[in-house]
């Protein structure tokens, strides 16, 4: 009797979330059971927890290259860190009524800025990107002034992996006394950082993007930077984030940070090679496939390839049936009716924007994973294109020259 | 991921009747690449019995778009043209054991393609091309009042959000929400009058559309208003690589040239009727917009 085994699940959606590392889980478990105390308590059951939080803080300090461990404020995740940073900057510099951000930020930043523009009358300068997702630095320079309270620009983009020159941007902003925040949720653990020697004032990071648990993140807050807390009502995190500590989460995030730091070289060599091979082979095997983002400045783990004349959700469903998890900037996967704001900001031609498919790797991926995608995806695209009314209409694919590159 | 029914998955992974039907005598095309989904439906109709003997489709779109197309062909093969015309988007959704609300527009696309293909067989110009079928409401997705009315009637819709889920109208720039509310109110009032639904308070329309003031304007004023309105439209078209040029104005006929990627674009008739719509709003009186070449 033949038993067809379920194909092994190949997870290539690590920019959405990662699996929690087993070592992380192991360090967390005691904090649900024996070490349940409140670190604020005087008694031994509580007090015993505090050193573990301290260790986690130091591990994050090391990963970020921060000058002091007290510059780390634990939060519930990237979104809370972003909101905290933005609102703190505006309340610290109330006479300044302008914000600078980019067109491709995560909604955790963009939506807050939109809200502030609409309801609190802030002027928000949204800096555009070019068709490789690179920030228009000239446009950025033009809007810098002493009326601007905050620059919030991401370190690396979640959809394309394009890395922004945040350090340069931060230094430019400093000349005007502007506070600088960066959403580094996708960059932390993949790009070496040295915030002790940086003009960046605030940085957001998230646990579940680096093989840590969900529901935990941190805000890096440079010593001496004006700060107004989002949550009040407790002395935790030195009064900067009230609320009983998520001890298990903090411990897990600390462990994840430690593992990420030791895995940074692997991420930038082996994982980068896997990614490069994946996109090289796919583009070689599938005509009318466009790699999005800046090939020179890109996260080592991310590639978004736009396949012309096919729709992203259909690709993902077929990949999923083959045991491969990826994601898409297409409209249909999100319930919105337009391609993602990142694809639109980059002006990806609409022939391709709907077929944008993101593969985001991590250190747990192997050569065999990549082989499998290379084996099945060309057939999936072929099949969908054979069904698409635009494919034959586009002429012989070889002769088809899209007017962009 | 969407919670698709087994039937949707089945028709997506193993779609029936895909590809070109060479001897089709009725072909309907709806949607566009820019909109993110499009369906080309081929019908072979026996002229003697008016029976659909074969149907095939080509679809660009998401899982439910492909499944809806597949279901549509299965439903209509063997039906007479008249029987097929009574097939609604709800029949397609039912055949698939339901679609998520946000995906109902996929079933509507199927029903619209069917109407287009039958019109093509009968030698009629289908409304989607000329928009004789009521005013263009949603410019982003090229949805007219007729399509919204059909979706409202068949599916008993009562909110703008539902209209967007079923037709996509209003799902992008959202500037047409007020117009959708107007169409919705009109259709629901009509349905109540027909006794199809119970009369009730019509959905509130926050801003009562004020009737354009009918005052006489000089030719110069008219020309200036038309020129300004066309200038306003240009950035939108330029963003898609196209452009528009005002050539001449003759009484109530406005001649324009579509340029760049608008030339030969299958959406160009929608673009023209969008321009017409805009000019009529600005001028408060009917005008006809035609391509200069045809003048």
Spatial sequence of strands, sheet with the most strands of chain B = 1-2-3
Oligomer status: heterodimer
What profile does the largest beta sheet of chain B have?
Answer: 3 strands, antiparallel
Radius of gyration of chain A: 22 Å
CATH topology of the largest domain in chain B: Sufe protein. Chain: A
Content-based structural category of chain A:
alpha/beta
**Number of separate helices of chain B:** 11
What does this structure look like?
The complex is a heterodimer of chains A (405) and B (295). Chain A is α/β, with parallel strands linked by helices and 405 residues long. Chain A folds into 2 domains: 22-262, Type I PLP-dependent aspartate aminotransferase-like (Major domain) (Aspartate Aminotransferase, domain 2), CATH 3.40.640.10; 264-395, Aspartate Aminotransferase, domain 1. Chain A has 14 helices and 13 strands. In chain A, strand 3, helix 5 and strand 4 form a beta-alpha-beta unit. In chain A, 52% of the residues are buried. Chain B folds into 3 domains: 6-128, Sufe protein. Chain: A, CATH 3.90.1010; 131-193, Arc Repressor Mutant, subunit A, CATH 1.10.10.1100; 219-294, GMP Synthetase, Chain A, domain 3. In chain B, 44% of the residues lie in helices and 18% in strands. Chain B has 11 helices and 8 strands. Chain B has helices at 6-13, 63-76, 81-85, 89-95, 104-121, 127-130, 145-155, 160-167, 177-193, 219-239, 268-283; strands spanning 26-32, 37-46, 51-60, 136-138, 143-144, 242-250, 253-260, 288-291. The N and C termini of chain B lie far apart (51 Å). Residues 202-215 of chain B have low confidence and may be disordered.
């Amino acid at each position: 009797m033949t038993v067809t085994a379920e194909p092994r699940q190949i997870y290539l959606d690590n920019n959405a979330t990662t699996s929690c590392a087993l070592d992380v889980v192991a360090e967390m478990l005691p904090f649900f059971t024996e070490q349940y105390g409140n670190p604020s308590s005087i008694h031994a059951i509580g007090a015993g927890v505090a050193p573990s939080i301290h260790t986690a803080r130091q591990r994050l300090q090391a990963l970020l290259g921060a000058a002091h461990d007290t510059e780390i404020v634990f939060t519930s995740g990237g979104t809370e860190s972003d909101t905290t940073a933005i609102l703190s900057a505006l309340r610290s510099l109330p006479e300044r009524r302008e914000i600078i951000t980019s067109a491709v930020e995560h909604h955790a930043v963009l939506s807050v800025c939109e809200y502030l523009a609409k309801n609190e009358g802030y002027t928000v300068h949204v800096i555009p990107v070019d068709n490789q997702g690179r920030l228009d630095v000239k446009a950025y320079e033009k809007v810098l002034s002493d009326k601007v309270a905050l620059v919030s620009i991401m370190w690396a983009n979640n959809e394309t992996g394009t890395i922004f020159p945040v350090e340069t941007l931060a230094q430019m902003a400093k000349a005007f006394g502007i506070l600088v925040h960066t959403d580094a949720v996708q960059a932390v653990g993949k790009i070496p950082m040295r915030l002790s020697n940086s003009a960046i004032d605030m940085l957001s990071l998230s646990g579940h993007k680096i093989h840590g648990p969900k529901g935990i993140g941190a805000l890096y807050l440079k010593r001496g930077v004006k700060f107004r807390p989002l949550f009040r009502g407790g002395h935790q995190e030195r009064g900067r984030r009230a609320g009983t500590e998520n001890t298990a989460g903090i411990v897990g995030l600390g462990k994840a940070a430690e593992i990420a730091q030791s895995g940074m070289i692997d991420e930038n060599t082996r994982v980068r090679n896997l990614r490069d091979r994946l996109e090289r082979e796919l583009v070689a095997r599938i005509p009318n496939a466009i790699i999005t983002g800046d090939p020179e400045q890109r996260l080592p783990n991310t590639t978004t390839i736009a396949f012309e004349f096919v729709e992203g959700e259909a690709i993902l469903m077929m990949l999923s049936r083959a045991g491969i998890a990826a994601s898409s900037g297409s409209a249909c996967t999100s319930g919105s009716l337009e391609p993602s704001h990142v694809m639109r900001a980059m002006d990806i031609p609409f022939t391709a924007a709907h077929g944008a498919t993101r593969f985001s790797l991590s250190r747990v991926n192997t050569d065999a994973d990549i082989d499998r995608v290379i084996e099945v995806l060309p057939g999936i695209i072929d099949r969908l294109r054979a069904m698409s009314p635009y494919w034959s209409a586009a002429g012989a694919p070889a002769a088809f020259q899209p007017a962009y590159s | 991921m969407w919670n698709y029914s087994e039937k949707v998955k089945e028709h997506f992974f193993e779609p029936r009747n895909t590809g070109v039907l060479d001897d089709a005598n009725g072909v309907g095309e709806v949607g566009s690449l820019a909109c993110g989904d499009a369906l080309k439906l081929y019908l072979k109709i026996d002229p003697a019995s008016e029976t659909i003997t074969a149907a095939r489709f080509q679809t660009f779109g998401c899982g439910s778009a492909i499944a809806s197309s597949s279901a549509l062909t299965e439903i209509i093969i063997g039906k007479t043209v008249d029987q097929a015309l009574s097939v609604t988007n709800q029949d397609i959704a039912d055949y698939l054991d339901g679609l998520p609300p946000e995906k109902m527009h996929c079933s509507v696309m199927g029903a619209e393609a069917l109407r287009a293909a039958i019109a093509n067989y009968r030698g009629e110009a289908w409304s989607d091309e000329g928009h004789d079928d009521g005013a263009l409401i949603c410019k982003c997705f090229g949805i007219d009042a007729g399509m919204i009315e059909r979706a409202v009637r068949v599916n008993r819709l009562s909110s703008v959000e539902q209209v967007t889920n079923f037709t996509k109208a209003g799902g992008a720039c959202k500037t047409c929400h007020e117009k959708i509310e107007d169409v919705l109110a009109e259709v629901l009032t009509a349905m109540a009058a027909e006794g199809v639904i119970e009369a009730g308070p019509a959905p509130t329309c926050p801003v009562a559309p004020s009737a354009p003031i009918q005052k006489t304007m000089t030719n110069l004023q008219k020309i200036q208003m038309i020129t300004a309105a066309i200038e306003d439209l240009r950035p939108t078209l330029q963003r898609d690589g196209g452009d528009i040029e005002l050539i001449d104005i003759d009484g109530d006929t406005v001649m324009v040239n579509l340029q760049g990627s608008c030339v030969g674009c299958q959406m160009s008739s929608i673009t023209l009727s969008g321009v017409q719509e805009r000019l009529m709003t600005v001028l408060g009186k009917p005008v006809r917009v035609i391509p200069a070449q045809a003048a």
